Automatic annotation (TrEMBL):
Alphabetized GO MF terms: acyltransferase activity, transferring groups other than amino-acyl groups
Source superkingdom: Eukaryota
Protein name (Swiss-Prot/TrEMBL): N-acetyltransferase domain-containing protein
Span of domain N-acetyltransferase: 106-245
Signal peptide location: none
Originating organism: Hyaloscypha variabilis (strain UAMH 11265 / GT02V1 / F)
InterPro entries, per database record: Acyl_CoA_acyltransferase (IPR016181), GNAT_dom (IPR000182), Trichothecene_AcTrans (IPR052523)
Length: 245
């Protein structure tokens, strides 16, 4: 892998050792996604399950050769979790000191079949280890799984229709304490550079709050989904699909 492709500066590849911190950042940031309210409607009662769920999902993203996880780092703010509405559960040994370099955001990409970069961004140390950490995913008590199937099916169909053969941005979030520092754009730009080097184009299925960011970076809307939940009156889960050529 060429040095120009690897994340640089305050960006780097995520490793399996990052998973606990990644789960905290995911909980703090995704709390503001419109989908969080229905997907994790019991988060306040079972915040530890939210953390464990993200740990499992993000460990898969790091270990799957068709996925890439990159992080952005900054100096730790001890009051960071007063700046999110989420409940963040941490262990005492996970609390850094003020000013220590920590992960404050991350992005996850999924490579299409046959992409040149498949397998080139895995955590080699974890891959070679005989004692890999296990992330059990918790008990899912924070989640309402009733929409998993209809939303998942609608999302998969939209991506197949509108974004075939592209590198997909699957996740992107920044901890709210570190918003408005250009970190989301930095992560997106790194992914766009990788796609260009691989001779591919990029796509994303975004929530409605994130559309403005992507449009400002040259993405164009190509489709939408809207799936009602089971409430009365129903809430609608929306997804917006954007392409970058």
């Amino acid at each position: 892998m060429s040095p120009t492709t690897l994340p640089a500066g305050n960006l780097r590849l995520g490793t399996i050792c990052d998973v606990p911190r990644l789960a905290q950042v995911a909980t703090a940031g995704f709390f503001y996604s419109p989908a969080f309210a229905w997907e994790r409607k019991y988060h306040a009662q079972y915040p530890e399950d939210t953390i464990k769920s993200y740990e499992k999902h993000l460990s898969y993203a790091i270990r799957d050769p068709e996925w890439i996880l990159a992080v952005v780092e900054d100096a730790y703010q001890p009051d960071e979790n007063t700046k999110t509405g989420a409940t963040i559960v941490t262990k005492s040994e996970e609390n850094p000191v003020a000013g220590e370099t920590v992960i404050v955001g991350f992005a996850v990409w999924q490579l299409p079949p046959g992409a040149k970069s498949i397998g080139k961004f895995v955590d080699e140390e974890d891959l070679a280890s005989d004692n890999k950490p296990v992330f059990d995913g918790g008990l899912n008590r924070d989640r309402d799984v009733s929409l998993d199937v209809p939303v998942g099916a609608a999302d998969a169909a939209a991506k197949e229709k509108h974004l075939p053969g592209r590198i997909l941005i699957r996740l992107l979030t920044i901890h709210p304490a570190y918003w408005r520092r250009g970190y989301g754009k930095a992560l997106i730009n790194w992914g766009l550079a990788l796609a260009k080097e691989d001779g591919l184009k990029t796509g994303v299925g975004a929530n409605t709050r994130a559309v403005g960011l992507y449009v400002s970076m040259g993405f164009v809307e190509v489709g939408r989904i809207a799936v009602p939940d089971n409430e009365e009156p129903p809430n609608v889960v929306e997804g917006v699909y954007l392409a970058h050529d």
